[in-house]
Each structure stands twice: as C-alpha cells, then as structure tokens.
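Lab intake sheet, docking and co-folding queue.

SAMPLE TYPE: protein with bound small molecule
LIGAND NAME: calcium ion
LIGAND FORMAT: SMILES
REQUESTED OUTPUT: full 3D complex as structure tokens
PRIORITY: normal
SUBMITTED BY: R.K., bench team

The fields below were copied directly from the construct record.
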Amino acid sequence: MSPVSYREPNEKRRPPALFFIRLACAGTVAVAAAAPAQVRSAYDYLARMDGDGDGRVSLAEYQAWMGYAFEAMDRNRDDTLTADELPGGRGRPVTLAAHREALAATFRRQDADRDGFLDARELAAPPR
Ligand SMILES: [Ca+2]
Ligand SMILES: [Ca+2]
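RESULT FIELD (auto-filled):
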C-alpha cells in the first residue's frame, strides 16, 4: 500500500473557480463539465450537480451549480462581475443575467436528445 493518504474529495457543491474562469474569459461559453482534466468522471460530476438526485441535470441545477461560482466571485453583490472581480483583474463585465443566459444556451446545445435534461453522456460530450 502506498503511504500517501488518499484524500477524499469533500467539497460538496462548489465548482472549482476555474470552471467559471473559463466561462468568463472564453467569450463563447465552453462546457466546463466536459474538460477531462478537471472532471474525472462525468458521473461524479453529474452526481454533484444533481441537486434532486434524479440522475440527470436540469437547467435549474446546471445554473445553480455554475451560479455558485459567480456569486463567490461577485464580492460586492451587485450581480455583475466587473474587471476587478474577474480573474487577472481584467475583462469585460459579466452580468448575472448574461451569465445565466449563456449557461442556458450551452445547456440547450449540450442537450443532444432535447429532453430538457443533461445526462452523463451529454455532460461529457465536447462543447457543441
Ligand atoms: Ca436532477
Ligand atoms: Ca438531455
């Protein structure tokens, strides 16, 4: 056995800030969920996003998950990420409304079977 202790991932519902950084900086919204280096398993990722535990991710769950990072970054709580709140201290302001709409657009693109939910396969699919 390795003496290196295995650290149980115990962060519950907080996506790594990098997810949102990618969203904020990309201009076009990439599906952070699909980044293999950040997500061991689409199933793990789904389980953490899946607030009601029904095995699939609704738009509300998707936005809640992604919105958490926005809230964390929005230090003055004005529902806008200004340059000083963005990674690197620069970039165009991002409003919460715009962020949510961008997430919704991404969600719809990823929802390959158009059932209104993302399953693990759709979460893991490359950005469409
Ligand atoms: Ca769900
Ligand atoms: Ca779907």
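REVIEWER NOTE: The radius of gyration is 15 Å.
SIGN-OFF: pending second check by T.M.
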